[in-house]
Amino acid sequence: ETGVTQTPRHLVMGMTNKKSLKCEQHLGHNAMYWYKQSAKKPLELMFVYNFKEQTENNSVPSRFSPECPNSSHLFLHLHTLQPEDSALYLCASSQEFGTTSGNEQFFGPGTRLTVL
Amino acid sequence: ELKVEQNPLFLSMQEGKNYTIYCNYSTTSDRLYWYRQDPGKSLESLFVLLSNGAVKQEGRLMASLDTKARLSTLHITAAVHDLSATYFCAVLTNAGKSTFGDGTTLTVKP
Fold first, then answer.
1. Which chain A residues are within 8 Å of B88, Cβ to Cβ?
2. Are strands B85-92 and B32-37 parallel, antiparallel or unpaired?
3. Minimal CA–CA distance to B32: which of B74, B79, B84, B86?
4. pLDDT (0 to 100) of residue A87
5. Cβ B96–A97 below 8 Å, yes or no?
């Protein structure tokens, strides 16, 4: 595997379900990100982890819970979601978070989530 | 709060024509990125602009950055159908976060 991978690619869940999205990067990067992309909205940054430490939480509802066990893996745990949470969830990684590097982000293919 | 505005949001152009997409941002930054997204796909990094006056070119696309004007441009030369996609600019703030514009959806028609 190369680059940034995400599983599953598609997910349909009910509002009472609990599911998790997985992201893995094979680039040796130290920062990982979760973004939400909805129709007709710009890309929204949700969470940032830098060297496994959470550095950003952009006022994301608690029904989204991130987990970063190591620099290569990032999870997004989902529970009691709402239909408006249906979106494309993108994971990205970069060498490091902050301004000391180019911070060019490499994106995974995304998980298309539908909440019924 | 940093605002990043792209225009136009939708662009339909004929093959062979030239056009420019603009990205304006509201706060000081000297790092700007351009990404491409094909329908149903993820974002692909196109250009990284790291200083005032930076210019990068790849094929029919050329990106530039004017940090004093807080403006980046993505110029398309002699468009071809393969360039049809949505293009995003993203600005890196001093806090280290990237804020994305709304995207410009480009359709190139024969």
1. 43
2. antiparallel
3. B74
4. 95
5. yes
Question: Which of A77, A69, A87 has its CA nearest to residue A24?
Answer: A69
Kindly compute the dihedral angle of the four CA atoms of residues A67, A71, A73, A74, in this order, to the nearest 10 degrees: 40
DSSP string, chain A: --SEEEE-SEEEE-TT-EEEEEEEE-S--SEEEEEEE-TTS--EEEEEEETTEEEEE-S--TTEEEEEEETTEEEEEEES--GGG-EEEEEEEES-SSSSS----EE---EEEEE-
B42: left (phi over 0), alpha (psi -120 to 50) or beta: beta
Take residue B12 and report the two structure tokens written for it.
């339909």
- Tens of pLDDT, residues B96-110: 778 899 999 999 998
Which chain A residue lies closest to B48 (C-alpha atoms)?
A104
pLDDT given for residue A103 in this prediction: 75
Structure token pair of residue B41: 């796909």
Low-confidence ranges of chain A (pLDDT < 50): none
Is the Cβ of A60 closer than 8 Å to some Cβ of chain B? Answer: no
For residues B98 and A110, what is the distance between their CA atoms, to the nearest angstrom?
Answer: 18
Half-sphere exposure of A58 (CA within 13 A, CB side): 15
Q: Which two tokens stand for residue A64?
A: 């989204």
The residues facing B35 across adjacent strands are B45, B88
- How far is B6 from B38, CA to CA, in rounded Å? 18
CB A74 within 8 A of CB A84: no
